[in-house]
């Protein structure tokens, strides 16, 4: 690979490669989301999580009852037993699952605070494309700004 090329990225584990792991479903067309998932994998998700873009047809195995628009609103973590965590609750769950995030767990688990974290999560998720705007290929992010 040439020095000017982007660093080759290790592929993320898919649910078919690791069926016994929790599945993190995210917007694979969103550069910010993809970078965030790679960061989660780096922080300890490797070996604990598998990853699936919400644009992959295999999503129907984990969230057939959710629409594409619902999946676009929040990341989703699905445990092997089928239990689901979405949005802020998913991030809260990951603070218990990934050791480097344990430091955030006490803050995110303050009793009755989940509605507050969910509000902030929704606000941030709504504008997430602005954080990858300059990195989109062609006009792929343009629809989120019109």
SSE sequence, one letter per element: EHEHHEEHHH
Largest sheet: 4 strands, mixed
Give the uncertain stretches in residue-range form. 1-6, 136-140, 142-146
The level of helicity is 25-40%
Question: In the residues, how many domains can be counted?
Answer: 1
| Range of strand content | 5-15%
- Our Rg estimate from Cα atoms comes to 16 Å
Distance between the termini: 37 Å
Mean pLDDT: 84
> Which structural category do the helix and sheet elements fall into?
alpha+beta
How many DSSP E strands?
4
The number of distinct helices, counting runs of at least 4 residues, comes to: 6
Sequence-ordered SSE layout with sheet pairings:
Elements: E1 22-26, H1 31-45, E2 49-53, H2 60-63, H3 68-73, E3 76-78, E4 84-86, H4 88-97, H5 105-108, H6 114-126
Parallel strand pairs: 1-2
Antiparallel strand pairs: 1-3, 3-4
Structure, explained:
There is one protein chain. The protein has 146 residues and is of the alpha+beta class. It has helices at 31-45, 60-63, 68-73, 88-97, 105-108, 114-126; strands at 22-26, 49-53, 76-78, 84-86. The longest helix is centred in the N-terminal third of the chain and has 15 residues, at 31-45. The termini are far apart.
């Amino acid at each position: 690979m040439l020095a000017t090329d982007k660093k080759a990225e290790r592929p993320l584990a898919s649910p078919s490669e690791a069926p016994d792991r929790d599945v993190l479903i995210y917007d694979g067309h969103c550069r910010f989301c993809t970078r965030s998932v790679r960061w989660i994998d780096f922080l300890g998700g490797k070996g604990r999580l598998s990853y699936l873009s919400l644009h992959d047809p295999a999503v129907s195995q984990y969230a057939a009852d959710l629409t594409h628009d619902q999946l676009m609103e929040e990341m989703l973590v699905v445990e092997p037993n089928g239990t689901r965590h979405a949005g802020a609750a998913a991030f809260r769950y990951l603070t218990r699952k990934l050791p480097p995030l344990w430091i955030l767990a006490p803050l995110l688990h303050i009793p009755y605070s989940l509605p507050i974290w969910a509000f902030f999560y929704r606000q941030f998720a709504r504008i997430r494309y602005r954080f990858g705007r300059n990195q989109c290929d062609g006009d792929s992010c343009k629809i989120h700004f019109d």
